[in-house]
Amino acid sequence: MAAANPIIQQLREQALALFQIGVNAANPKAGLDKAFQDNPLSPLQDGRYLVIALGKAANAMATTCLGALPQDTPFEALVITNYENATKIEGATTFAAGHPVPDENGLAAGKAIIDLLATTTDKDKVIVLISGGGSALVPAPIDGISLEDKIAVNKLLLSNGYPIQDMNLIRQTLSQLKGGGLSQLARPAQVQSYILSDVVGDDLSVIASGPTNPPLGTAKDALALFEQKGLIDQLPANVRSALENKLGDQTKDLSNTTNLLIGSNRISLDAIFDAVPLGWRGLILDDLLEGDVEDIAPHLLAEISAAPRGEKTAYIWGGETTVTLKGDGLGGRNQELALRLAALAEKEPQQDGHWVFLSGGTDGRDGPTDSAGGLVDAQTLARIREQGADPEALLANNDSYKALALSGDHIMMSATGTNVADIQICLVDKT
Predict the structure, then answer these.
(1) Half-sphere exposure at residue 120, Cβ-oriented, CA atoms within 13 angstroms
(2) Which segments constitute the MOFRL-associated domain (predicted)?
(3) 172 and which of 72, 178, 264, 399 could share a cystine (Cβ 3.0–4.6 Å)?
């Protein structure tokens, strides 16, 4: 369903083009190519390269890395990614697994990593290629915790508005691989990790729950995060017991590991800024956008409402928001943020000019849906009502997916093969 106003339609097309530029800037191949050009991989004497790629960008990262390996050094490779991105890679064993909810294939992938690391010697070198999504894709629960327990905890985290830092602290305490566990298991081999960031602030211990970085906290800290939201009684009994007994806590020696950041959300925002059309004023207002979308939407609208008259302004944000579920509808944080902003804007309409607002996930998927996010304008809610639905009721039920389907405001794209969190763009034309 297209916007009827030709100016709005043009703005929508421009916003989508800018978003695609941001996604393209997160191409993991470019980042890895530069890293290998700066520091080429050397042949190993009597050793192997063990390549482990995990996350939504695992395919591109693994393909690039395998092409950079010295031809006379043997290697083994494991690639773990989400179902939408999975393809066969020559020379590698590939696992397609569940995201954002872990599944049996991810459990098998985690076991494969642990089994491979058990064969290392001091002559081997482990190359770890990390991108967003790796945490859910590779569940490797500590003793006493089942996959079902991990799934239950994951659903609890996703539905209660935990920021990614808190979610991954909790995941680390229940995993053999997260929070530096992979590097620990890789001993006595050296580990070189290349990381594509999908988290605000690029904390390497948060990305994919930090398999090659120190843990964010302890089991005691994880328990406190559940206590703060009154969720202790909703934890599986095995998980609660593990946290209360501080199981999984240990000091990890990560002196065998070097980490390198190869891409981030800020790089994508800068690319969008550089591509703002001639005659427009571009502003990156925030590259650390966090918080519940219910709180974020009015903040963004206030910034948009201040757009100067007589100008064309492109506002740009990046980060990772959260949603606290109060209903049983379908959606994701980007879809709900877009819908909430459109609802607020209808109550406080712009006095002049035209605007569109886009919020999208750089991985091409928003939550458990086939939508990357939403692209709304001043007529979004009117289009929903024309289809016989109540947008406010849909929003109250967290049913942003249905609402944006009715208004024709979904961003539909295939999985991008990368992930550097979310991008928001608002184009305001007051000329």
Answers:
(1) 26
(2) 15-244
(3) 178
pTM greater than 0.85 (yes/no) = no
What's the rounded Cα separation, in Å, for the pair 243 and 142? 11
- Strand segments (E) across 121-277: 125-130, 190-196, 257-263
For CA atoms 360, 366, 372, 376, the dihedral sign is negative
Containing structural domain, residue 13: 6-25+266-429
What's the pLDDT score for residue 246?
76
SS3 breakdown of the chain: % helix, strand, coil, rounded to 5?
A: 40, 20, 40
pLDDT band, very low/low/confident/very high, at 399 (cuts 50, 70, 90) = very high
Taking only Cα atoms into account, the Rg of the chain, rounded to an integer number of angstroms, comes to 22
User: What pLDDT does residue 342 have?
Assistant: 97
- Number of folded domains that form the chain: 2
- What CATH number corresponds to the domain at position 206? 3.40.50.10180
What pLDDT was estimated at residue 349?
Answer: 79
Residues 6+ apart with CB under 8 A from 424: 289, 300, 315, 316, 317, 318, 337, 357, 358, 359, 360
pLDDT of residue 228: 95
Work out the average pLDDT over 282-298: 96
User: Both 273 and 347 in a single domain?
Assistant: yes
pLDDT at 248 over 60: no
CA distance 94 to 97: 10
Residues 213 and 116 in one domain: yes
Same structural domain, 257 and 284:
no
Instruction: With respect to residue 184, please indicate whether it lies within any of the assigned structural domains.
Output: yes
* 354-372 burial code (b ≥16 CB/10 A, e <16): bbbbbbbbbbbbbbebebb
Residue 387, token pair as written in the block: 């289809």
> Are 399 and 286 members of one domain?
yes
Q: Where are the alpha helices (DSSP H) in 94-232?
A: 104-117, 134-137, 147-158, 164-173, 181-186, 219-228
